[in-house]
Every structure is written in structure tokens, then in C-alpha cells.
């Protein structure tokens, strides 16, 4: 976020031209699901544009990605190997409850600008979600309870297309036997 600006951005620049986008949080939670896939098809993100879409869809996805994720210089992370600790789809109820708990804001009451929601998520404290993120990042060592909690709350491995095809073949063989 840039607090020197009077308003939050509502467009992305692609090939020297601005394109108006939907900035509401539900659009960007969906974008997170799309970019988390193994393959992203160029037209999959067209729903984010409010009107004209760029001809260069790859440059458009890159611009949308820059809007979605603003790099931060702090905190500095040294030697951290947390891996993937956030999944907006899996964590949806925890994120919803945490924002409601911390800020009294109901995400279903209306659309909030994505940058506002990201800032609120960054500022969460004292919630079950913070506790779970702590478990996901923990290095339990010999602490068996911490190891158990880390295992209980770690995100599932992402399935590749090959994995999905193998599982489908196994299921077909099992159910068609």
C-alpha cells in the first residue's frame, strides 16, 4: 500500500495503457485460486477486467499479479523454510473469522478493495488463524506437541496434473472393476 496516494489503484497498466479492473476482495481470492493451479490459461483472468481487456493476455496476467501481490521489504526472513503457509480457499473460514474478530468487518457485507483486505490480513493478531500460521511455520525439533500441531495444520501438497490423472485412472479401475 502506498499511503502517499489519495486513492487505491483501480486499474493496471499493460503495454502502456491502463485497464480498469474489479478490485473487490472476492475477485482476488478467486485470482489466488487460479494462479495456484499448475497451469493458468490466458483467458481465465478476463473476469477481473471491467470493460476492455488487453490484447497481450500474458502481459495482462503479469500486471494483475503485480496488483495482487505487492512485494514487501519487511520483515526480513533469514533461513526460513516455512514453505506454503497460506491457502485462501482452505483458510477462507479462518480468514473471514479473523477479520471479523480483529476489525469487526464482515467480508460478506460488501466488497472491500483487495489492498485493504491484504493489509488487514497482514495486521491480524490474536486469532486462531495466527495460531495456525505459527504452527505451519514452526520448527518443532523435539517438541512432540508442536510437531503434532504442525502436522495437523499443514497445507496439503499440491497435486500436479500427472498426479490427478493417476488418481483418476486408479479410481476408474476401482469403480469399474
Low-confidence stretches: none
Secondary-structure element string:
EEHHHHHHH
Share of residues in helices: 40-55%
Q: Kindly report the average pLDDT value.
A: 90
Oligomer: single chain
Q: Main sheet: which strands, in order across?
A: 1-2
Tertiary shape: globular
Put simply, the count of helices is 7
The major pleated sheet works out as:
2 strands, antiparallel
N- to C-terminal separation? 56 Å
The proportion of residues in beta strands is under 5%
Give the strand tally.
Answer: 2
The SS-based structural class is mainly alpha
The whole-angstrom Rg is 19 Å
Tell me about this structure.
The structure is a single chain. Helix 5 packs across helix 6. The protein has a two-stranded antiparallel sheet with strand order 1-2. The protein contains seven helices and two strands. The relative contact order is 0.12. The protein has 177 residues and is mainly α. The chain has a domain at 11-68. The longest helix has 15 residues, at 161-175.
Amino acid at each position: 500500500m502506498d499511503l502517499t496516494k489519495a486513492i487505491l489503484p483501480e486499474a493496471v497498466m499493460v503495454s502502456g495503457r491502463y485497464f480498469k479492473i474489479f478490485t473487490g476482495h472476492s475477485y482476488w481470492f478467486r485470482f489466488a485460486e487460479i494462479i495456484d493451479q499448475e497451469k493458468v490459461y490466458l483467458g481465465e483472468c478476463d473476469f477481473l477486467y471491467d470493460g476492455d481487456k488487453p490484447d497481450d493476455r500474458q502481459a495482462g496476467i503479469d500486471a494483475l499479479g503485480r496488483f495482487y501481490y505487492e512485494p514487501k521489504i519487511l520483515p526480513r526472513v533469514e533461513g526460513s523454510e516455512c514453505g506454503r503457509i497460506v491457502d485462501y480457499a482452505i483458510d477462507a473460514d479462518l480468514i473471514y473469522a479473523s477479520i471479523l474478530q480483529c476489525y469487526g468487518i464482515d467480508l460478506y457485507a460488501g466488497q472491500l478493495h483487495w489492498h485493504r483486505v491484504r493489509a488487514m490480513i497482514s495486521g491480524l493478531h490474536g486469532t486462531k488463524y495466527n495460531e495456525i500460521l505459527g504452527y505451519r511455520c514452526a520448527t518443532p525439533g523435539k517438541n512432540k506437541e508442536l510437531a503434532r500441531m504442525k502436522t495437523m495444520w499443514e497445507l496439503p501438497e499440491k497435486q500436479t496434473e500427472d498426479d490427478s490423472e493417476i488418481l483418476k485412472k486408479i479410481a476408474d479401475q476401482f469403480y469399474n472393476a
